[in-house]
Amino acid sequence: MNASTVNESDARETEAKAEVSIEQKETEGLSQGQIVRRRFFRHRAALISIIVLAFIVILAFTSVGVNLWGLRIPGWWQYSWDEIPPKVNNGVPTMSLWPLQFGDHPFGQDEVGRDIFAVVMRGAQQSIMVMVIAGVVATIFGVVIGAVAGFYGKVTDSVLMRFTDIIITIPLIVIGSVLGNTFGSLGAAVLGVVIGLFAWTTMARLVRGEFLTLREREFVDAARVSGARDRRIIFRHILPNSVGVIVVNATLLMAGAILLESSLSFLGFGVQSPDTSLGKIISENQAAFSTRPWIFWWPGIFIIAIALCVNFIGDGLRDAFDPRQKKMPSERAMARAGRAKGPMAPVIDTTPSTDAPSVTVGMQTAYTGDVVNFNDPRPEEPGDVQHKPLDPER
Prior knowledge:
Number of strands: 4
Largest sheet: 2 strands, antiparallel
CATH architecture of the largest domain: Orthogonal Bundle
Subcellular location: Cell inner membrane; Cell membrane
Membrane topology: Multi-pass membrane protein
Helix content: 55-70%
Oligomer: single chain
Strand content: under 5%
Number of helices: 14
Distance between the termini: 31 Å
Main location: membrane
Family: Belongs to the binding-protein-dependent transport system permease family. OppBC subfamily.
Protein name: Oligopeptide transport system permease protein OppC
CATH superfamily of the largest domain: MetI-like
């Protein structure tokens, strides 16, 4: 092995040690929750998505108020989604960027005269409600069924997984259309529960896979030996170790739920009149696409924004909970870590110079530059008890 290869391997080893020391210093003295929170806040896209999603939720629920099961709380916006004010500017949006002004109808008005801003805010409320309720219901069902199937296995696993396979074979859009047409008139909350009852299959399969792996670990055997019951082992020992997979998949379920609700409402099987949702707004005004296109811009923008924000948040949670995700330290941090370990030992180049005096003995070349006691590489001769310095004439 020549000196350059040795130097490169030493450099790589030193760099790896510096990287490990940096990661250990960053997580030293922190709990698992603090480590996850710190990793999540480093994900810029997820952090921006949380801010944007929080802004949309606050804007939607405070602007036009809340009307839930007969309880109505007014908002700060001057118009309601079911109010028909007189037309202003022929229904064209009054909002302009320069000079910055909003006017009475910043999103414009439809053909009847309803304020599009109020209608879109009400639609965003309903879509967000369906998204959250469907995600929570699907997560609960998926976790319970997947945990029971993965922990007990055998007959229980076979029965539950075959039932899951049956639900998977039925297209979700077909189930949603049939049930949405039946229960859509009861409100967004009931529609969210109905969607959640049939959207848990992916969650169940993922949780089952995690439980099949974790139930063979040493801490589960220790809990069994200590006399813990199955329910305690499932919910106190195994389930906390699966929280990463559960949280990430729950965000994906929510993103899929809002898209499914928008599709069902667009087809007429989702939220029913007199209420509205983002998909229903597009469906009701599809005939005016060529004359009043702004009616489609804002519901579509809000659907895309909410779905993207939820997906980016799920991406950040996946990186935060996955211990294999590591942040590569910068060159400055690597240099600081290297200096903290002290100066590196000098590397001595042991490669012999080509002009050094040498003697060829047999098939080997011996360099005799500064060698004082160089032993003859040939086997010792009979009667020669001790090696003597190399004799060129020998």
